[in-house]
Amino acid sequence: MASRKRILVVMGTRPEAIKLAPLILKAKADPDRFEVLAVRTSQHREMLDQVVTYFDLPILADLNVMRKDQGLTHVTTAALQGLQQVIASVRPDVVVVQGDTTTSFVGALAAFYENVPVAHVEAGLRTYDKQAPFPEEVYRRLTTVIADFHFAPTETARLNLLKENVPAATIWVTGNTAIDALLLTLAKATPEPSREKAPTLLLTTHRRENHGEPMQRICEAVLILLKGFPELRVVCPVHLSPRVRQVVEPMLGSHPRVSLVEPLGYEDFVLAMNDAHIILSDSGGVQEEAPALGKPVLVLRDSTERPEAVEAGTARLVGTEVAAIVAACRELLTNPAAYRAMAQARNPFGDGHASEQILDVLARSLDSTTRHEPAAPAATPASAPPVRKRPREPALQVALAADATTRLSSAAPNPGST
Ligand code: UD1
Ligand code: UDP
Predict the structure, then answer these.
(1) d(CA 251, CA 219)
(2) Sign (positive/negative) of CA torsion 263, 267, 268, 273?
(3) What is the CB < 6 Å shell around ligand 1?
(4) What is the pLDDT of residue 126?
(5) S-S: 315 plus which of 33, 107, 309, 322, CB 3.0-4.6 Å?
(6) What is the pLDDT of residues 214-238, one digit of tens each?
(7) CATH fit for domain 194-343, picks 2.30.30.30, 3.30.470.20, 3.40.50.2000, 3.30.420.40
(8) Domain 5-176+351-417 falls under CATH 3.40.50.2000
(9) How confident is the model at residue 371 (pLDDT cuts 50, 70, 90)?
(10) CA nearest ligand 2 atom 16, residue
């Protein structure tokens, strides 16, 4: 019989946890095939706590890297150091990373240094513009170079990988695990019955390339729309990044028809999307969820790595110019045919079984591999705990991780550094 595979899942931000939760829960429910362990860098703190609590995810280690208004260099170095120690002590059969954040890339890099195979969930998304989204486009490409298993959500993503000479036998088209999480949540949540009410615009914005003036223009457009449509209401769960808050709060906070709220728990946000008339967002995940819910999403970006939503007709790229945002919203608010054309549930991102498929591939493919031994000793800093092969006691593993946290905190660079 095939041996049980030890999977180490790495997560740092809200969307990674949402998209990896179904995979973790499925692997946990299948102890004959898998031992699943999860490490959180905590690149996000409260926004990740919300997801971990909602899905009740088992967490082996918390690296506690988040700093207020942190720079990329801080997250990269602190997470790399901590993840290397966790991977070296756990010695998993595979490290699973998701998407395109600093944590995803660094998780892949740390596994590579430790000679552990890497599975990349949501592989193959591309804009081919290194500056947009920044730095995510580069993280994705770098993760592709490192990964051994590429789980592409769509055929388009698979073709992108093939163009980059990724071996076809290492790519699997599975759909996006975002849809697994969405369906899991819709099955638990109870949407309010739809009733006649004032149109609501749901706004989310956080992308680095939208910090500053583009975000100001987004808010300006929202104010113009509120003026032009006296019935219109706006709900905006404000991302915890100070760069977002310093723009959105002063510009929209005092308007009587704008509700600025703290980041919503995942289930509440799904219900808010379901309740909205139009979604205005620069989020990646929202571009995947809105088509499945049949909600028009106007994407506050000039390019997208998720062209499938645009092709399906539910998403439209509107950028961040005031006139373009206002015109696109106005059309949806005044032209029922244009609204209907966008508001149809079409879901190009999978059937909700992506996680199962990924786990099946891992169970099958890892069967033929042997456990990977540590790389050359030079890869392990002198201060790291000695590499332990397959520690059995969970208590021991947590103790190692807590130790890593302490040392990371004391070595943390200036929070303002980039
Ligand atoms: C990160 C990801 C981005 C992803 C987004 C999801 C990178 C480079 N960026 O961007 O790809 O789309 O997460 O939301 O990996 N903060 C808190 N509490 C939290 C979360 C954030 O206070 O729970 C604040 C902190 O001040 C933190 C700042 O937000 O320093 C920025 O967080 P960071 O993860 O660096 O960037 P995001 O813009 O969230
Ligand atoms: N989301 C949430 N609460 C909110 C806003 C968003 O749970 O208040 C969810 C949303 O449903 C999606 C994910 O967070 O699954 C998107 O996260 P974000 O926009 O921060 O990151 P991105 O997807 O752009 O990387």
Answers:
(1) 7
(2) positive
(3) 13-15, 43-48, 66-70, 72, 75, 100-102, 135-136, 206, 240-242
(4) 98
(5) 309
(6) 999 999 999 999 999 999 999 999 9
(7) 3.40.50.2000
(8) yes
(9) low
(10) 285
